Amino acid sequence: MQVWTIDHFNVTKVQKSRDAGASLRFVPRVFTNTNIQHYHWRGSQPNNALEASPIGVLCTLVQTDAMHLQMPFDRRDKQYNALPHKRTFRDNARMPTPTTITRANCAALDAEDSLRACRERFDIPGKTIYLDGNSLGALPRLTAARVDEVVREQWGSTLIGAWNKRAWATLPTRVGGKLARLLGARDDEVIAADSTSVNIFKLLAGALAFTDVTTRRVILSERGNFPTDIYIAEGLNAMLGRKYTIKLVEPHEIESALDADVAVALISQVDYCTGHMHDMARLNARAKRVGTRIVWDLSHSAGAVPLALNQDGAELAVGCGYKYLNGGPGAPAYVYVAKALQANFANPLSGWFGHRAPFAFEGSYAPAPGIERLLCGTPSVIALSALECGIDTFANTSMQALRIKSLALTDLFRALVEQECGDFSFTCVTPIEPEQRGSHLSFAHEHAYAIMQAIIERGVIGDFRQPNLMRVGFTPLYVRFVDCWDAISILREVMLSGAWKAEKYHQRNAVT
Ligand SMILES: Cc1ncc(COP(=O)(O)O)c(C=O)c1O
Question: Which of 30, 362, 417, 490 counts the most CB atoms within 10 A of its CB?
Answer without folding.
Answer: 417
